[in-house]
């Protein structure tokens, strides 16, 4: 069972609105948080109040996370494309998520075919995609497990990146919903992670698809074209770009 993510058009209306709100919320939020910190320094000595403050700060983090994801989604992020070796990108990300993986008893293995051509990418944005996918993998395995990350060249000459986890898998009905804004099965989820991934991969002239079967784990595959010789900063990976 496989589903190609391509639901991002649905964002245009909802997302623009949400981003507008997110943007407006951010400043007052920062100010509120500052005052809260001040109060905590005065009142937090009392255990009871300190507990309340902890709850409030947790709730703040949650709002910040949602607001942050909205902003990533809706603001057309300025892109600066560069030819980058894929193994380097993956290594950085695995390192970044190491602590989270260890805490969750998850091991991440990477297997990168030697001699792969670089990809023309916006480093930060592509890393954001890898982080979102790996986080989903980690979150799918609350009792631990393995995530295999592999990169190889496909027959067509494109680069294929796969992230395979040993989680519970995704039922067919749910698979069709992936990539829709706000679709989440997690208590603390935003349901925006995959949509962000799709957006970014699309802007890299690539595709992202998810295959999964209940009880068999989930594999996310990203296909990206290899960098062309003219891949330089601030230009699209191929041809021209608009909107
Ligand atoms: P969130 O992680 O905030 O829920 P995402 O867009 O990242 O939002 O993912 C949407 C949903 O897709 C998740 O809630 C989950 O149900 C499903 N999903 C994504 N990745 C996996 C995975 N590796 N294993 C199982 N389910 C997954
Ligand atoms: Mg997610």
UniProtKB/TrEMBL annotation:
<feature type="domain" description="Histidine kinase">
    <location>
        <begin position="20"/>
        <end position="228"/>
    </location>
</feature>
<protein>
    <recommendedName>
        <fullName>histidine kinase</fullName>
    </recommendedName>
</protein>
